[in-house]
Write a structure and sequence with these properties.
79% helix; mainly alpha
């Protein structure tokens, strides 16, 4: 039964990968091997813009979320258990919450925040004679903030087990030997939890590359990542270019997941 389930899940992906190398545009007959559709991707400005946007958002969101999540995890770890438990529960909510709920709520939040900013900017301009912009729009910045927000819980969840495995006396021993708290943090804590930090970084990057729903509600009309661009392309007709770019996305996520699992197996 499990084998049948996996076949049902992965056979369509295998067909998609195979037809991304199909010489013709047919979705049923494989007429010959070609790399022309991958070359076409390199000439498509819309795809390249979406790729650069995806890469920028994913890298920035992963790095920022990893830094914020690392310090948040350390803060949670040093809290008393009666406080840590409820906060960890709150931290887990975004991971089990439906993406559609997160996307819609963030969209409404940004719209309300922009409305308040417009009123405040008009008052400041009238009072001080400044020229602050009164209208803000959804775009790259809002999508980046959304990605950072939903990535942080994954980073915290990756680092917490490493903090629990760490000997609490190591930091005290380092400080007794003359280290300041910051020196003890960089020389003792960071090396101990480094595997969790790297795993959190890779997971955050993977989640950002793969996200569609939250990005769709927070990117506005002027910004699009690869997932959104693929969705727009499938509205007309599924061309071999869609197969090619989907294959590249699948390969990227697969490689990252393999790296994450290999790191966890070697620890």
């Amino acid at each position: 039964y499990v084998i049948l389930v996996f076949c049902f899940m992965y056979l369509p992906i295998a067909v998609m990968i195979a037809f991304s190398f199909n010489e013709s545009k047919s979705r049923s007959n494989f007429t010959g091997f070609t790399l022309d559709w991958y070359r076409e991707l390199l000439r498509d400005d819309l795809i390249l813009d979406a790729f650069y946007t995806t890469l920028a958002v994913s890298v920035l969101a992963a790095v920022i979320a990893t830094v914020a999540g690392t310090f948040a995890a350390i803060g949670f770890y040093n809290m008393k258990r009666r406080l840590r438990g409820p906060l960890m529960t709150i931290n887990n909510i975004p991971m089990v919450n439906a993406d559609i709920v997160t996307g819609v709520s963030m969209c409404l939040f940004f719209v309300a925040a922009f409305s308040l900013w417009g009123q405040a900017a008009e008052w400041i301009n009238a009072s001080l004679g400044t020229d602050l912009p009164t209208k803000l729009y959804l775009g790259f910045g809002t999508m980046l903030i959304a990605h950072i927000t939903f990535n942080i819980p994954y980073v915290i969840l990756s680092i917490m087990p490493k903090l629990r495995q760490m000997d609490k006396n190591l930091v005290d021993a380092a400080q007794d030997l003359g280290c300041t708290w910051m020196q003890a943090f960089w020389k003792v804590v960071v090396p101990e939890i480094k595997p969790g930090i790297v795993n959190g970084l890779l997971i955050a990057f993977t989640m950002s590359v793969d996200d569609f729903v939250i990005s769709y509600f927070t990117a506005g009309s002027t910004t699009a990542n690869l997932a959104m661009r693929i969705y727009a392309m499938t509205k007309k007709r599924i061309s071999p270019e869609v197969n090619a770019i989907s294959t590249l996305l699948f390969a990227t996520v697969l490689i990252l997941l393999i790296v994450i699992n290999l790191r966890e197996a070697s620890q």
